[in-house]
Structures are given as structure tokens and as C-alpha cells.
User: Fold TetR/AcrR family transcriptional regulator from Polymorphospora lycopeni.
Amino acid sequence: MSRRDEIIDVALRLFAERGYKATTITQIEAAAGLSPGAGGLYRHIGSKRELLVAAFDRVLDSRRAAQNMPRITDLDDPRIAISVAGRAVLAYVAADRDLYRLVLRGGDLPVDLSDVYQRLFQPGFDEVAGWLAQLAGDRPGFDATAVAAVALSSLFYFAISEFTYGCPPGHVEQERFLAAWTAGLLAQLGV
Assistant:
């Protein structure tokens, strides 16, 4: 990991904990092991806003890289594919925990959150809706877009509830949640 990436990680953690506006460059420098107030951060990145944009861009880059990995759609058994997909979404959210915490704080971010949504989240919903439509085939009345929205939203809420409140919804552990989530999605698909 580069020094720049380390600084982005530290800044993102502080933004998520304290809020974007409440976090100072001096605090970021201190937490990143730089001399506070000496301007060392600027050797690695141009501004506080650039730190935020770099954090979002890094997540987008990791999602693009994941698109080059073996596809879940290549799995023959829909039961396994759906279970793997659920675990993958939970892993994405866990890996980007501070980013999600920051976005949930909302309000004081100097970025257009609707643009962030369109770039960060909507492609995943579209991809899952297409995949579910493919799995459902010509099943009459199947609304892949709505089913994808419900399926992904429940996964996001599960993960976010764990790191926001310290426990999953209903105190249901992840394995039980994923089993129920998979069964519900398979029922929607008629599998």
C-alpha cells in the first residue's frame, strides 16, 4: 500500500468518525504519522476534498477490478450462485465500511451524493437485476428490478446495522440471515 493510500484510509476513517467538516488536515496528518500542521500531507494529495474524492474513486476502481474476476453468473447452480452473491455483497460493504459510514453521515460532504449513488450503487443494482432476469427466464410477472432492489437493500441494511449499531437486525447471525435471504430469493425466482 502506498503512503498516499495510507493517508486516504486514515482520512476516510476520521471523516466517518467525526464528519468531513469537523476533521482537519492537522488531525489527518497526526493520525497518518505526519508532523501535524507542517503541510506534509500536501506532498501526497492536494486538498481535503481530494482525499474524499480519492476514497470514492478507489472504491469504484476496486469494483471495476472485481468485474474481471470469475462471474457469479458462471456458476451452474442458482442456489450456490445466490449464496455466493450475498456473501460477496456483504464482503464489499465490510471492505468499504468507513465509506458507507461517511455516506450515511451525509450532510456535510462537498460532493453530490446523487452522483455518488449513480456511480457507486446503481451499476450494482442494474447488474443484479439483469442477472436475476436471466435466472428467472420467461417467468411471467417477475419484476427483476424490484426483486434486485429488495435483495440488495436487505443485504446493505444487514451489514450497515452491524457496524452502526453493533449487532445485526433481530440479532440474527450472518449465516442464518444468508440462508433466509437465499431461500427468499430462490422462492421469488421459482427455483
About this structure: The radius of gyration is 19 Å.
